[in-house]
Structure formats: C-alpha cells, structure tokens
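Hey,
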Amino acid sequence: MNKVRTAVIGCGMISNIYIRNLKELFSIIDLTALSDINLTSAQEKAQYFGIEKVMTPAEIAEDKEIELVVNLTPAPAHFKVIRTMLNAGKHVYTEKMFTTDLNQSRELVKLAEEKHRMIAAAPDTVLGAGVQSAKYYLDSGLIGDVTGGFVSITRNQNLNSELYRFLQKEGGAIPYDVGVYYIGALITLLGPVKTVCGYAAPALYHEKELLYSENNPENWTIPGNNVIAAALEFESGALVTVHFNGNTAGSSHHAFELYGTRGRMEVGDPNTFNGTVKVTLPESETVTLPFTHGFNGMNLLEKKEWFDDYGHRGVGAAELAYAIRMKRPNRLSKEYGLHCQEVLQGIDEAARTGTVYKLKSSCTVVPLKPGYYSTLFEGTVRGDAERSLIEA
C-alpha cells in the first residue's frame, strides 16, 4: 500500500508527539514537510525529528504530491487553514476544536463534499484502547441498555492559561479545550445527541498578580463559558449529565459513569488512550475489564521522550490515511467534528436563551475491529494495532 505523503502545519507543543508518531509509528504515513507561522520553530522541529522539508502553508497547498495535511494550529486559525487546504485538493486532519464558529464548520463540511475530500477531527483518543474497549463491552450488552450517565472534568483553567497562552484565545475555555474529549467519547459510545439544555458561566477575570508572569499580559479573561452544567438527551434515549468547571482550584479531577439496565460502567479519562474500564453488576464487586483493542498509549519507540505520555496522538490522521487508500469513509469524520462542536455550542445557546437546543447535525463513529494490540508479551514487544485501521 503506497504511503500517504503528509505535511504538518503548526509546530507548537503538541506537535512533538504528532511528528514523532507520524514519522516513526504509523507505516501508512510519509511525513515530508513541516510548517509554522514561526519559521524558526518549524526548522528546529524538522532538524530534531529529521523531517525533509520546511514549507510555508502556501507551498504545501501548491505541492501536488502532498495528499494529507495535519492541522495543529490554534483553534482560531483552523477555518482558514482547513479551507485553504481543501481548496488545494488536500484531505485534512485537524486538532480540536473543528473551528470556533459553527457556521464556519458547516461551510467546511459543504466544501469537503464539493471537493470530494475528507476531514478528520480530534479528539482521536476515542480510537484508543480505553474508549474502544468500553464500546465493545457496551455493544455486547454487558450492562444492558444505557439509560443515563454522568461526566465531569474540573481544573484550574485560569491558572493553566498562564502556562499555555493559547488558552487565552477563543477555544481556550474548559468545555472546548478539554470537555470536547468527554463529548467525543460520549458520542462514540452512545451515538448522536438529540437535544441539550443547561446553565453556563464565563471564565473569571484574571488579575495582574500572576504566578507565571513571563510573556503574559497584565490581565485577561478566557473567552467563552468556563463552567457548564448541562443535560444531554441522546437519540438512543439515554440521558447524561455533564459538568465542566474551569473556575476551580487544584489539579484535574474527572468522572465518567454510564448506568444501564443490567449494571454500571466507569470509563477512564477520555483525554488519554488507556483509561481503564470498570463494571459493577448486581451482587458483584467492581471489576476492571481487559482491553479488547490496541492504541493503549504505549508506543514502544526506541528513544524515550518527555512527551511520551501523550500516547498515540496521530492515530486519527493514520486512520484517515488508510481511508484515503481504501477509498472508504473515515471514522473521525467531518460529521463527527461538527456534531461534537454543535453539542458544546448548543449548550452555550441553551444557557443563553433558557431553552432546549435541538441538534441539527448527527454522526456515527464506526468501532475499530477488536483483537489487535499495541503491545504484546507484557508490554515488551510492539503489537499489530495498526492493522485495525485498515478495515472499515
């Protein structure tokens, strides 16, 4: 199978794990070029990872041999980058959020259809061992029909925005920066959302007294709502409570529970690839279930790096590359990206108007085939998980 010639646009912090994985882990990818608004950053990454070329976005768009663009730019830049690359005939994988504006995302979906090109949208952690195993056990009927659930993530997003300054911009509030992992996982596990309602509160005003003051402005407020308390009605009938809070103190704390007619399931952190799956059935203790799928976050590449904890990021781009070669739909489709975004912005709209918001979009995330693993022999040998990306 011919490799898919690929370029990465955006060489910030998250690009390290993407560049390394796309270059060394996924055999379907031929990573040939890097690009960044800061040319020096792209050049440094290219030298460190041994990438052939540093190019401008315009040069990438003009290069006929590049088929796939991995967009790792900040969220406010997504619309322009994706539109440019679609018009140039490229397929695009984009980090979250899809865009910061729902109408712009709808425009990109329409453009992709007109150009007969695919978009894949993060989060791709939903292709990880944790969420895929949870899906396998749910589909087996282990806890019966899911009737409800509760998901929550809390962290000091305002303090985080001192360290990671891209959070000071549109898309930096906790629902869009982190909550999208939970929404993506819920959609992957339970299917599309029908309606949403809820309450929301904006981010706190950040005072001048900063803990990490270097290169920061004197004060700011993260755009958008930084606390939401919402309810999601799924097309399946399941009702799920959602709580995202970035206006709090301390380190991250998460919860993800699903309640069925036969039992209860706890799903590990969907911001990782290896969240453990636990099930409690009547008259039994809680048990941890084995993974049924690969992409458990352990890459087993020879050189250990400080960013290894980011796991298998890039698997969504690799899955898209196989979809290109196999001439089939990709799993983390433009419809998936649009639906995740509409759920979050629908909550904002419901909170603003005091009404129930009805989703206009829908999607289906096809599960990966079980039985392929990233590691074998107690984690000492790399497995064949990439094979699970080939089949539809």
